[in-house]
Amino acid sequence: MTHYPADHGGLEILPFERCLELLAAVPVGRVSFFADGEIVVLPVNHGMDGQDPVFRTGRGSKLSAAEGQSVVAFEADGYDERTQTGWSVLVNGRAHAIYEEAEIQRLSRLGLRPWVSAADRPFWIRIRPASITGRRISDSDADATPGHER
Predict the structure, then answer these.
(1) Cα 126 vs. chain centroid, distance in angstroms?
(2) 110-134, pLDDT tens digit by residue?
(3) CA–CA distance from 30 to each of 5, 19, 42, 65, 149 (Å)?
(4) SS3 label, residue 147
(5) Please, which residues have CB within 8 angstroms of residue 12's CB and are 6 or more apart in sequence?
(6) What is the pLDDT of residues 67-123, one digit of tens each?
(7) Nearest to 135, CA basis, from 13, 29, 10, 1
(8) Distance (Å, rounded) from C-alpha 75 to C-alpha 135?
């Protein structure tokens, strides 16, 4: 297993490319944003379009945040209970609603479904990252990547 430099708390600091790989390796993350005077954190199933997390949603607070190009955070993680290893990747950026038909058609080929299937017409949301950072708790006997436990 590759070891990376550690932060002040002893967590390994993941390089940018590894963060992108890990984000692509899990289907569910959490998007957080400010709405109605509160911080809201909601689960979404997502995909990666290059460096951008993308997801689909119905009308509501997530779409409103994206239409306003609000600052958001997106976080995904993985944990192996057997080895007590895990990782977390955080994306900070701005949400954007996607309305261009060619872009919608291209993203639709990702096969991503909205978290709640009751949405009449789910909208695509893209998060344009300002930063992507990741940390990992590891031991010498296991790799915390989903599906790569030893």
Answers:
(1) 11
(2) 888 666 665 567 789 999 999 999 9
(3) 26, 15, 5, 14, 24
(4) coil
(5) 3, 4, 5, 6, 135, 136, 137, 138
(6) 777 899 999 999 999 988 999 999 999 999 999 999 999 998 988 866 666 556 778
(7) 13
(8) 11
Distances (CA, A) of 145 to 3, 25, 31, 73: 13, 8, 21, 22
Q: What is the pLDDT of residues 27-67, one digit of tens each?
A: 999 999 988 888 999 999 999 999 999 999 877 777 677 77
Q: Looking at the whole model, is its pTM more than 0.90?
A: no
**Furthest-apart CA atoms within the chain: distance in Å:** 48
Tell me if 123 sits within 8 A of 115, measured CB to CB.
no
CB atoms within 10 A of CB 144: 24
Tell which residue, 21, 31, 137, 22, has the closest CA to residue 80.
137
DSSP 142: B
Buried b (16+ CB within 10 A) or exposed e, 48-85: ebeebbbbbbbeebbbebbeeebebbbbbbbebeebeb
Which residue do the tokens 């344009």 mark?
128
